Structure formats: C-alpha cells, structure tokens
Amino acid sequence: MVATFRAPFTSPATVVDALRRSGYAALAADDVAMLCGVPLDALLALAPSWNDLPPDDYLRDGGRYRQRRHACFVVRADGCVQVPHRAHYQPLDYNALHGGIQRWFAPMAPATIASSAWSPLLWALGESLRELRPVDAWYVEAHQFRIDTVDGIGRPTPEGAHRDGVDFVAVFLVDRHAIRGGETRVFDADGPDGQRFTLTEPWSLLLLDDTRMIHETTPIQPQPGAAGGYRDTLVLTYRAGGFQSEA
Prior knowledge:
CATH superfamily: q2cbj1_9rhob like domain
Order of helices and strands: EHEHHEEHHEEEEEEEEE
Number of helices: 5
Radius of gyration: 17 Å
Structural class: alpha+beta
Strand order of the largest sheet: 1-2-10-6-13-5-3-4
Number of strands: 13
Shape: globular
CATH architecture: Sandwich
Distance between the termini: 48 Å
Largest sheet: 8 strands, mixed
Strand content: 25-35%
C-alpha cells in the first residue's frame, strides 16, 4: 500500500510569508476562495469546461493521455486583460522534452474567461505575488489540463522534475476521478530539501516560486476495477517583463 501524505496547508494571511520562507505554499479550497474574494461555488462552477478539452498534439513521448487549452493575460493592479492568442514556448533549458518549439494549443473557451471567478482569481494572485516581487505587470499564461488513464497510465509532468522559466507557478487541482497516484513533489533547486503530498480537494492550490523550486507530479493509474480515470488541473504562470518567446 502506497502512503498518501496530506498537503501542508497554510492560511491566506500567511501565504506570502510561506513563499518567502520556503519557496512554496499550499492552500485549501476554502482559503483559495477567501484569498481571491470569490465564492467557492463560483470556482467549482468552472469544472465542466474541463470536459471539452481537445487533445494535446505535441506530446513527444507518444502518449495520448493529455488534453489542454491555453490563454494569455496581462494582470496589473487595476485589472486583468486577455491578450491575442499566442503560442506557448519554453526554452530547452526548462523543458528538455517539449522545449524549443512553438506550441499552438486550442484557446480557452470565452465562457470560461467570462465567468465571475476568472478575473478575480488571476488578479488576486497577482496582488499577493507583488508583495514578494513588485512589478507593474504580470504576464500570465493559463493552462487547462486533463490527464487521463485511457491507455493505463497518464503523466502530468512527462518532462520530469522541472522549472517553468517564470517567476511564480500556481497549480490548482480542479478534480480527480477514479485514479491513484498524482503525488505532488516540490524540491529546493539548490539543495536536497523537498516535500511530497497529494492534493485531493477540488480547488486546493500549490503556489511556488519558480526561481527557487523544482516541481513534478507523479504518474496516475486507474483505481482497480475502475474506468475513465482522470486528473484535472489549472496551471497559471506569472512572469515579469513579458511572455516567454524564442527571442
């Protein structure tokens, strides 16, 4: 039997201190809603949009286990603005498996972005992160992921333990169904210290300083006797100075 470790949740009042001290913080769903100033029900109402994600056609390991959508935003102190759809790009230094190419993922659905929870979510996280790194604007990429077990195993991070090449990364667990695995692992990029835990509650959050930490999520498998397993996440990356690009 594989042990499952609970996430070391902190409170909204101490999330910035936790990031400053440890390089990461985890929040329970109710506290995510409190931090963002939206009802938890408004976040939960976003979940059905994960049922309409097209396949990720860029997987280089031959897998068919990942679906996703993507959108980009600029978040300032006075609000959040979507920018024209653009490719997702990571240098090979940050993603040895899928880096070095422009990946044009399907755009997020307009109804998702227009929801009452969406802009407050992006803006509130940006305001919290400005307490650590004051910037005029955050360049935010949003990724909706579904990892499934149709072929027996799904890999949330096929590139392995990695950094994303941004300032901060927010990983929200949106749902997990009929699976085992999917353990979150966070490591100090410059030392041996690390933490492992499993997010199980819809809209619980891992927030990490990408300049200090390496992260990964272990593969998922179907629960014995179950079919149709999947793990849904929302990943938001916050970067100062502009979006990552080949230039």
